[in-house]
Design goal:
71% helix; 191 residues; elongated
């Protein structure tokens, strides 16, 4: 390496690395677009908070589909639930990976509880059926939760409108709609 290359490399690192770090941190602190419905959930919501909620939603879906698979006596439904649980695990991992791209940021103790409460109030974390619920009651709950997941990801998509996020979230919306359609096909008697 000649001296010009060394100077160029050191200059690039001195300027580029701090800029890169600041930009990445800034993205995770991004707030919802003005006028988006997600902005109504709180003045100081950040992208990392929405990612955390997404992880929680996907964890609940994963646990629920595992339980529904165990409850069903129909092998096709068990297989469907196993695939849906795998999808939920993949969605969860997607958001964990996105969170992991930045330095760990703790939840804001002033804004997180209010945001989480608002998310619950909007029905994104509905109480699952009781342990003695029928398979149909569980399937109806799963369908409702898939619809709520679609709604949540659409809020997310509109709230953080950068193209790469829209495209990825649009794909998630389509997958969640696919889950709903598959559940309806497996349980045609449910309205």
């Amino acid at each position: 390496m000649n001296e010009y290359s060394a100077v160029y490399l050191l200059t690039a690192l001195a300027v580029g690395l701090p800029a890169y770090i600041l930009l990445r941190r800034g993205r995770l602190k991004a707030s919802p677009a003005k006028g988006s419905r997600l902005g109504e959930f709180g003045e100081f919501i950040h992208l990392r908070d929405v990612f955390r909620v997404a992880v929680m939603l996907e964890e609940e879906g994963l646990a629920f589909y595992s339980k529904l698979a165990a409850r069903s006596r129909d092998g096709r439904v068990q297989e469907l639930c196993a695939r849906l649980a795998e999808d939920e695990a993949a969605h969860r991992q997607l958001f964990l990976d996105l969170l992991g791209h930045w330095n760990p940021l703790e939840v804001n103790p002033l804004t997180w509880p209010a945001f989480l409460e608002r998310v619950k109030k909007e029905g994104f974390f509905a109480d699952p059926p009781a342990e003695n619920a029928s398979e149909d009651e569980m399937a109806a709950y799963a369908i409702r939760q898939e619809l709520k997941s679609v709604e949540f990801y659409q809020l997310f998509e509109a709230g953080f409108p950068l193209a790469w996020k829209r495209q990825r979230l649009h794909r998630l919306v389509q997958e969640e709609r696919g889950h709903e359609a598959k559940l309806r096909a497996a349980y045609p008697r449910l309205k």
